[in-house]
């Protein structure tokens, strides 16, 4: 799917918060933008901690922001790796969090903030076996 172009509004939303990434330990700034089923865009950045394991990735911050506002279905995800020459996929934990609120066909755009290089994949290709507690997916 690498020929698919990156939605400009998602990219601009991610760019608008990239400088707020709190990454003093890794110096690897990440911003994410998700579009929900109502067309609303939510953004997030990575927030690190001196107790390293408490770090939260940009994608989870963006998805949790959507859920906080009542959104329950992610239509598209963009990950902007601000300091990487290559686009990066969401980590396994973030893919699992995205899968909680997205269909397997959901498109994930990955963009390098350094080179502009991008990659496009579907959630099911990045996480073929998402964990599900059961087949009934109640969001209440
Ligand atoms: N990070 C993200 O925010 N999203 C990703 O997709 C990959 C990794 C963050 C976590 C940490 O703050 C830094 O990047 C280096 O791992």
Features:
globular, alpha+beta, five-stranded mixed β-sheet, 4 helices, Cytidine Deaminase, domain 2, single chain, 5 strands, 140 residues, binds tetrahydrodeoxyuridine
Write up this protein.
By secondary structure, this protein is of the alpha+beta class. It has a single domain (8-126), classed as Cytidine Deaminase, domain 2 (3-Layer(aba) Sandwich). Helix content is 25%, strand content 26%. It contains 4 helices and 5 strands, in the order αββαβαββα. It has helices at residues 8-18, 58-68, 92-100, 123-126, and strands at 30-36, 41-45, 74-81, 102-112, 118-122. A 5-stranded mixed sheet has the order 2-1-3-4-5. The N and C termini lie far apart (34 Å). The structure holds tetrahydrodeoxyuridine (THU). Residues 23, 26, 28, 30, 46, 48, 55, 57-59, 79, 88, 90-91, 94 line the site of tetrahydrodeoxyuridine.
Please sum up the structure shown.
The chain has 140 residues and is an alpha+beta fold. The protein has one domain (8-126): Cytidine Deaminase, domain 2 (3-Layer(aba) Sandwich), CATH 3.40.140. It has four helices and five strands.
Layout of helices and strands, plus pairs?
Elements: H1 8-18, E1 30-36, E2 41-45, H2 58-68, E3 74-81, H3 92-100, E4 102-112, E5 118-122, H4 123-126
The structure holds tetrahydrodeoxyuridine (THU).
* CATH topology label: Cytidine Deaminase, domain 2
CATH architecture classification name = 3-Layer(aba) Sandwich
What is the H level of CATH, i.e. the homologous superfamily? Cytidine Deaminase, domain 2
Quickly give the structural class.
alpha+beta
Radius of gyration of CA atoms, rounded to a whole number: 14 Å
Whole-number mean pLDDT: 95
Overall, the morphology is globular
Total number of beta strands: 5
Heteromolecules bound = tetrahydrodeoxyuridine
Helical proportion, percent range: 25-40%
* Alpha carbon gap, first and last residue: 34 Å
Q: Which residues sit in consecutive blocks of at least 5 with pLDDT less than 50?
A: none
Helix count from the secondary structure assignment: 4
Give the biggest sheet.
5 strands, mixed
CATH class: Alpha Beta
């Amino acid at each position: 799917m690498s020929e698919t172009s990156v939605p400009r509004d998602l990219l601009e939303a991610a760019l608008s918060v990239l400088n707020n990434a709190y990454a003093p330990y890794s110096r690897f700034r990440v911003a994410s933008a998700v579009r929900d089923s109502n067309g609303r865009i939510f953004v997030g950045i990575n927030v690190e901690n001196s107790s390293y394991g408490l770090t939260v990735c940009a994608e989870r911050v963006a998805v949790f922001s959507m859920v906080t506002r009542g959104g329950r279905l992610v239509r598209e995800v963009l990950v902007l790796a601000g300091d990487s020459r290559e686009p990066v996929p969401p980590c396994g934990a973030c893919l699992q969090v995205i899968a909680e609120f997205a269909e397997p066909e959901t498109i994930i755009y990955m963009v390098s903030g350094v080179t502009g290089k991008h990659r496009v994949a579907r959630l099911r290709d990045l996480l073929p076996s998402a964990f599900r507690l059961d087949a009934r997916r109640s969001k209440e």
